[in-house]
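2.7 Reproducibility. Because tokenized structures are sensitive to small changes in the input, we list the exact sequence used for Efflux RND transporter periplasmic adaptor subunit, including any N-terminal residues retained from the expression construct. No trimming or masking was applied before prediction.
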Amino acid sequence: MRKGACVLGFALLLAASGCDKRGAGENHKDEPAKAAPSAAASAHGHGEGEHGEHGEHEELPRRVTLSPSVITDARIHTAPVRMGTLAITIALPGAIAADPDRSARISSPAEGKLEEVHFKEGAAVKKGDVLAVVRVPELGKVRGAQAATLAKAKAARENAARLKALLEQRLTSEQAVLDAEAEARALSIEAAALGEQLTAMGAGASRGAPFLLTLRAPIDGTILARDAVVGQPVTAEHVLGSIADLREVWFLGRVFEKDLGRLRVGAGAEVELNAYPTTRFAGSLEYIGQQIDPVARTVTARIHLQNRDDMLRIGLFGTAYVATGGDQAREPRLLVPRSAITEIGQKPVVFVKLPEEGAFEMHDVVLGDSALGTVEVLSGLGEGEEVVVEGVFTLKSAVLKGTIDEEGHH
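Resulting structure tokens (single pass, no recycling of outputs):
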């Protein structure tokens, strides 16, 4: 027992020594604040917990001063902290899907055999890019028939012109001229029909062989799938691959019957995906299905999303939070845009604009609920304070690099 007491006393002595060392140079008038830190003190990192459990973050600066040019280049903008209530939302489970109007399938319009394949999954393609070359025997026959018909039509036109000249000299009959002109028109129509048949078969440049068919990308986009190998036989029903323009996508959510009356087309929405639990994607509800799934008893709701940074992939699961526009008995709280929140040392913080030109201060905050790009702040801010909502990364980088306003800090 005496040995344990000695060890405990030695540990307490070391702790007291560490506290004295950290407190050196501090005003003793701050001692009551340390004993019972206020919410504001905690938000500014002056509480006991900050010096105790998170002492490793004590050296990070709380203030940052930037020049006007840096503020302009970083596009730093602020917005006032306001009092209000969050929008009421409905949670809709679902997944990301491609927009059919921005999608296309790659297939051969005629039966044949693959000679060349020029696309791979994940590759970006432009409209008109060569994707594959197919050998189509029937294509050679049609092209040959068209060439022969065009030649006959040309000869028939020349014969009609010759007979017309002879008619003027009364060396032939008018009926012979009419027959020759009719034959020329018929052959021209037949050649045009064969040309339409080639177009329907997707015939483009012959590439040096009349039986080769070139398949080109019908839209700009990304190759999602490929089922094409050189030498394989293909038919018009065989899908060789698929393309989608993923700059804009859909989130298809499931709405239960009981919630149908609370949704309106055009309502704001946020989508949270399982793959990115800390990121929200803003969109709007653009369509509510007209048919109930007889098994799940749900209706499909379509939300249009912009695919920023190419993060959205087809099939990703998640939840959409859609505003209902209804009222709710909820206590008003301080609200800030979600873009104002960042993390430093695994703690949520915001940057507040100070009266001094170019000066900002980092505040630790305690967050509440969130909805549609807005977050409740339970402590750490005051109503009317200007928080940075754009360019937060620049300020965060300055803090982590130790760029501070020395006079303001001391």
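The chain is about 30% helix and 35% strand.
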